[in-house]
Amino acid sequence: MTISPKNIAFAFLSWILFQEAEAQMIFDTLYLDETEIIARKYERNAPTKTEEIDTLVKSEFNHLSLAELLSAHTPVFVKNYGKGSLATASFRGTAASHTKVLWNDIEINSPMLGQVDLSLVPNNFYSHAILNYGGSSLENTSGALGGAINLFSGKRQPDEKLSFIQTFGSFKTFSSSLNMNLGNEKFASLTSAHLTSSENSFSFYNKAIIPPEWQTQKNASYYNRGFTQSFTYRLSAFNELEVITWNQWNFREIPPVMSSQNHDNHKEEQASFTSRNILKWKFHKKNSMLQVKAAWFYEDLDYLLVTATSVDPEDTVTFIQSVNKTNSGFIKAGLTQLLSRGWTLSAGLDVALNRVNSNNYSGIKSRNDFGLYLKIAKSFSGFVNIELLLRQQFVDNAFTPPAPFAGISVKPFEEQDLYLRFNANYNYNLPGLNDLYWYPGGNEYLKPEYGIQYEGGITYVKRVSGTLGFTVELSGYDSYINDWIQWVPTDYRYWTARNIAFVHARGLEALGQMYGQKGKVVYKFIARYSFAKSTNESNEAKEGGYAGRQLIYVPLHSGNVFAYLSYRKFECTWNTQFTGKRNTSLNDESLYSNVLPAFSLSSISVGKSFDIHSVSLEAKFGVNNLFNVSYQAVLWRPMPGRNYEVFVVFKWK
Amino acid sequence: MRIIKNMIKLRSMRFLGMIVVLVIVLLLDSCEKEETPAPPIGEFQNAMFVVNEGNFTAGNASLTYYNYKTSAVSQQVFYRINGAPLGDVANSITFDENSIYIVVNNSHVVYKINAVTGKYQAKTTGLTSPRYILKIDNQRALVSDLYENNLTLINTENMEIISRIALGRTSENLLKYGNEIFITNWSAFQQDKPNNMIMIVDSENLQVTDSTEVGMEPNSMVLDKNNHLWVLCSGGYLNEEVPTLWKIDPENKDVLMRLEFPDLNSSPDNLHINKTGDTLYYLNKNVYRMAISTTQLPDNYFVRAGENDNFYALGVSPGSDVYVTDANDYTRNGTVYRYTPGGVLVQKFEAGIAPGDIGFID
Questions:
Q1: Under an 8 A CB cutoff, do B19 and A262 touch?
Q2: Which of A85, A387, A461, A643 is the most exposed place for a label (fewest CB within 10 A)?
Q3: pLDDT for the residue A492
Q4: Is B95 touching A (CB cutoff 8 A)?
C-alpha cells in the first residue's frame, strides 16, 4: 500500500474504530437547543471545514449584499459584473452552480440556472451566515461540489429593539436597512426591510475604443427593495412554531460592454420578484430534536432587451422578452438523537418539487427531487471525532448513486487547541433546468455532475489572555469533478449542454486571525489567502491542448485583509481584497484580452457613535477603492474608481 | 489512554507533515512562467487576415495576421498596434488600396486602419448592427445591417455617414457588378417579409431598382469568370426548406440554375471562388469544391472535417490555396488549416476566438 493522504486516512480511521471500546463516554445528557445545533456545525473539532462569518465583519457589511461580504471576507471568489449587477460565487475553483446558497436550510439557487445572484441578497436579511466548504455541505444539501452558504434568520435579540442604517453614496447610491425585534418569552417577531437604489453613473476612462475617452456609465441603474418577517411562537417548553417570509422586488439595467459605440439605442434590463416562505415546527426534548419545515418559493424573472435603429430611437429592431416563473415546494424533516457513549445519530428527509413556466422552454417543466440522509457521529473523549454520512436522492423516478461522506478530526493535545481534520466525500449535482430544457440546445439526457473530494486541515486557536487571542488555520483540498456540464456548439448553429469536462480542482486556504484589547483600544485583524488551481483534464482538453490550463475566471491567487480598531466611541475599519489574474479564455497567451491582470482594492471607514439613554447614534464615513485603482473584474466591464459613502446608524436598545 | 494519545500524536505529526508537503508542492506549482513580450509586427506583407469574432458581449474580438509567403503568424495585431481591443463580434474584413475596413458588429462600429501599418485612421459609429462594407467608388462605401431596413452610405475618407438608403429589408452580403449592387437579405429578423431575396440598388442614384427571389436565407454570393452570380442559401434558420445553390445572370436576373442540397437539416455557407473565377468552394460541415461548369453538387468533400472539427470560415488565396478555420468550442483560440489547390494540408496555425472571416491583400 502506498503512502498517500487517502491511505493514511483510511488506516487511521480503521484503527480508531478498533479502539472504540476504550473510549470514554462524554455525553450523558445534553439539552439541545437550535443554536447549539448550529454552533456544533462550526466547532473547531468538527471533521469538516465550516465557519461562521464573523459577526463584527457582517455588521460592517449590513447595508450591502452578500456578494460584497463574501468577496471581502471569505476565500469564495465572486465574479461580479459591477455594483448592483449579476454576482455569482465560486468555491474552491468550481462553477457558480456548484455553490449552493441556503436560507434556513432550504436551497435558494434558481432551479433554472442552478445559481444564485448574490447581489440580490441583502446582508441585514439574515443574522448569521455559515460557510460549508466542500463535503461539509452534504448534511444540508446535495450538489454543492464547491461548497454551500447557509443563511439563518436570527433569534430575537432582547438588547436591540430597532436598528436603522441609512447610507448616501457616490453616483446617487442610497440604501436604507431596518431591523426590528419585538416579543416576549412566548412570542417573537423579527422584521427586516431593505431598500437600495443607484444611478450608478460613474466615470471611467474607456480604453476599449479608439480614440480612448472619459465616459459616464450609462444604463447601469438598479432599484431593489424587500422585507423579511418572522413570527415565532413557543407552544410549550418543547415545541416551537415559526413562520418566515422573504419578499423582494428587484430591478436592474444591464449596461453594454465597453467596446460598444452606440449606447443610445440599447435598453437591456431585468426585473424580478421573489417570495420565499417557510413554516417550521421544532420539537426538542432531552437528547432529541425534531425539525420539520415546509416551504414555498416563487420567482418571477423577466428579462428585456430592446434595441432601436440608430436612425430612429422609436424604431425597435430587437425585442427579446424572456418571462420565467418558478414555483418550488419543499419539505425538510430532520431528527437528531444524542445516544450514549458519544454517539449521535441524525437522519433527514428532503423533498424539493420545482415547476418552471418559461417562454424559453417548450411547455411547463418540472423536477421532483427526494433525498434521504443518515449521519452517524462518534466522539472519543472529545479528542477524536468521526462522522459518517450517506445521502441518497431519487430524482424524477430514478435513483442517483449514493453520496457518502467520511470525516475525522483529532485534537492531539489536551492542553492545546490544535485540531486536525480529514474528510472525503462523493457528491452529485443535478443539471439546471436550463441545461435540460432550454430551447434550443437543452439536453434532457444530461447526467448529474459528480465530484470526489478530499480535504485536510489544521486549526490552532490560542487564547493568550482574556484580552488577546489568535487563530491560524490551513486547509488543503483535492477534488475531481466528472461529467462537468458545458455548452458546446452543434452542427445546427445552436449550442447544446453536454457532460463534457473532467475538472481537477485543488488548492489551499489559509487564515490568520487576531483579536485583542489594550486599555480602551479594541482591535481585530483577519487575513486570508486562497490558492485555487482548477483545470480541465478531459480527453477533449488534452486533444485540444488546453488541459492543465486554469479555468476561466478562477483566480489562482486571492486574498483579503480586514482590520478593525476602536477607541472609546471611535472606530475604524480597513479592508483590502486581492484578486489574482484571471484567464478569460483557454488560450495560453499573455495579451490583455485573454488574461485580466490582478488587482487590489482597499476601502476604509471611520465613525463615531453617541449614546443617549437607550438610543445609540453612529455616523460613519467610508471610502471605497481608496487608491482609485482602474480595474476590470469581468472583461471590458468598467468598474468605479474611488467613491464615497456616508452612513447614519440608529439603534434603539 | 496514554498510548492512544501518543499514537494520535504520532499520526497527527505525519498528517501535519503531509500538509507541509502539500503546501510546498502547491507553492512550487504556482510559480508562474515569465511572460515574454510579443515581437513587433512590422509592416503587413503578403497578408492574409483572420477576423476573430470573439464571444458575444465579451468584447474579445481580435485580428490575426498571417504572411502567406513566410508563414509567420501574429495574433491580436489590432490590439498590439492600436492599444485597444477590436471590440465585440468582429464580422468582416474588406480592403482598398490603402486601407483595411473591419466591421465590428456588436460594437456598432466600422474601423478603418492603414493597410501597411495597421494603425487606426478613422471609424464610423452610429450604426445599428453592421455586417459588411463595400466600396462603391473612390470616396464612398455602403454598409449592410442585420437589423436595419436601410443601407448606410459613408464617406471612406473620414468614415462619416452621408445618408441612409431605404432597402425595405435587412441586408448582408454586398457585391458590385457594373452599375448595380447586389444585396442578400439573409435574416428574417426585423422584417415582415420572407428572407429569400437579392435586392438590387443602382450605384449611381442609390435607389432600389430591382430584386430577384432565391432560396431562404441567402448567406453568401460570388461572381464567376463568366459574370454569373452564384448565391448560396441555407434554407432558413429552422431549416424550413432544403438549402439551395443558385446561378443567376446579373444582367437580366434570370435564374440559370438551381441546385438542391439533399439534406434538409444541413446549413451550407461560406461560398467562395478562386481568383481565376472558375472554382467554387463552400462549407457544409466539410469543405466542398465544384467547378462552375458542373451542373450538380459535388458528392465528395474536398476537405473532410474531423470528428472534433468545427469548420467556421473559408478563404481562397490569390494563389488558390484554400484556408479553412476551425472555431473549436468558441471558448479558446480557433485553428486555421491551409490546403494546396490539390487538397494537401501544408500548414496549420492558431487564430483567435471564433475565426469568422478571412481576407487577403494581393
A1: no
A2: A461
A3: 62
A4: no
Question: Which B-chain residues 26-55 have CB contacts (< 8 A) with chain A?
Answer: 26-27, 29-30, 32, 35-36, 38, 54
Test A210 with B111 for CB contact under 8 angstroms. Answer: yes
Long-range contacts of A16-25 (CB under 8 A, 24+ apart): A16/A380, A16/A384, A16/A386, A16/A408, A17/A386, A19/A380, A19/B4, A20/A378, A20/A380, A22/B1, A22/B4, A23/A341, A23/A342, A23/A380, A23/A381, A23/A384, A24/A342, A24/A380, A24/A381, A25/A340, A25/A341, A25/A342
| Superfamily covering domain A5-652 | TonB-dependent receptor, beta-barrel domain (2.40.170.20)
Instruction: Answer yes or no: are the C-beta atoms of B9 and B1 closer than 8 Å.
Output: no
Q: Given an 8 Å threshold on Cβ–Cβ distance, is A212 in contact with B84?
A: yes
Which of A306, A300, A339 is closest to A321 using CA atoms?
A: A306
Domain boundaries of chain A, sorted by first residue:
5-652
Of B54, B57, B58, give the one whose Cα is nearest residue B102: B54
Q: Does B106 touch chain A (CB under 8 A)?
A: yes
Closest chain A residue to B83, measured at CA: A207
* Alpha carbons B301 and A489: distance in angstroms, whole number: 22
Place of cell 480541465: A536
Q: Which residue has the cell 445559481?
A: A115
Closest in A209, A457, A458 to B84, CB measured = A209
Picking from B2, B3, B4 by the largest number of A CB atoms within 10 A of its own CB, the best residue to mutate is: B4
Q: Contacts of residue A503 in chain B, CB cutoff 8 Å? A: none
pLDDT for position A263: 61
pLDDT digits (tens, 9 = 90+) for A633-651: 998 899 999 999 999 999 9
Mutate to test the interface with B, among A2, A17, A261 (most CBs of B within 10 A): A261
ipTM confidence: 0.79
pTM of the predicted model as reported, rounded to 2 decimal places: 0.84
Are the beta carbons of A584 and B26 separated by less than 8 Å? no
Please tell me which of the candidates A208, A556, A587 has its beta carbon nearest to residue B332: A587
Question: What pLDDT is attached to residue A30?
Answer: 29
Residues 6+ apart with CB under 8 A from A415: none
CB contacts under 8 A, B 241-280 vs A, are: 265, 267
Sheet strands side by side (includes B73-74): B73-74, B62-67, B47-52, B355-360
CB pairs under 8 A between A and B: 196
Mean pLDDT within B224-241: 94
Cβ-contact B109, A261 below 8 angstroms: yes
* DSSP character at residue A123: G
- Pick from A250, A242, A198: nearest CA to A226: A250
Q: Report the gap between the CA of B103 and the closest CA in chain A (Å).
A: 12
Chain B residue numbers with beta carbons less than 8 Å from the beta carbon of A498 are: none
CA-CA distance, A382 to A363, in Å (whole number)?
55
Q: How far is A8 from chain B (nearest CA, A)?
A: 8
Cα Rg, chain A, nearest whole Å: 25
Residue range A215-252, pLDDT digits in tens: 999 899 999 999 999 999 999 888 999 999 999 999 99
Question: Does the beta carbon of B191 lie under 8 angstroms from any beta carbon of chain A?
Answer: no
- How many CB atoms are closer than 10 A to CB A33? 13
- Whether B28 shows a pLDDT value over 50: the answer reads no
More confident residue, B42 or A175: A175
* Residue A493 binned pLDDT confidence (cut-offs 50, 70, 90): low
Give the range among A393-402, A544-553, B28-37, B166-175 with minimum mean pLDDT: B28-37
Distances (CA, A) of A66 to A73, A128, A187, A582, B353: 10, 11, 29, 22, 34
What's the order of all strands across the beta sheet hosting B161-166?
B130-135, B140-145, B150-155, B161-166
Q: Which of residues 134-153 of B touch A (CB under 8 A)?
A: 147-148, 150
* Dist CA B112 CA B143 (whole Å): 13
